[in-house]
Amino acid sequence: MTELPISLSVSRVFMATPETVFDAWLDAESAVQWLFATPGGVMEKVQINPRLGGGFEVVERRGLQMAAHFGVYLVIDRPHRLVFDFRTDPGATPTRVSVAFEVRDNGCFVTLSHVLDPRWAAYEGRTRAGWSMILDGLARALRVP
Predict the structure, then answer these.
(1) pLDDT tens digits along 64-117
(2) Angle of CA points 67, 62, 112, to nearest 5°
(3) Domain spans of the chain?
(4) Is the peptide bond before 118 cis (omega within 30 degrees of 0)?
(5) Helix, strand, or coil (residue 38)
(6) Can you give the pTM of this predicted structure?
(7) Sheet with strand 95-104: strands edge to edge
């Protein structure tokens, strides 16, 4: 029997326009402040090529380890949707991340969905917490509640 992929999602409201929130995902100067940033980590590299087929590389030093994150953009539909294949090892099979941006009252409702291979089931909670931390970091970078 084939195991089904794991689909997890996290959401957050930003008191900013969808355009502002969307653009932060594709801007290296913004991303250096929040994308895969952890307390005590030191960003070593943030490169973003914001076009279909382009991608990103974010590397943060965490103590003695380097935490690398890679993505390839599959959908860039400003300011509605961003989809990328994601991996933490350049040789690994990628997983799919989709970010949806919706107008909500005077702000933007963001839903991030990540489809994981079933073999990563033990990391589902940690992955969900990581994406929540990233969205919280984005809010701080945008200086919005």
Answers:
(1) 999 999 999 999 999 999 999 999 998 889 999 999 999 998 899 999 999 998
(2) 50
(3) 6-142
(4) no
(5) coil
(6) 0.93
(7) 6-14, 107-116, 95-104, 81-87, 65-77, 55-62, 42-48
Gyration radius of the chain's alpha carbons: 15
Helices (H) and strands (E) in the chain, counts: 3, 7
Tokens 């933490």 correspond to 88
Q: Which amino acid is present at 2? A: T
CATH architecture for the domain at 6-142: 2-Layer Sandwich (3.30)
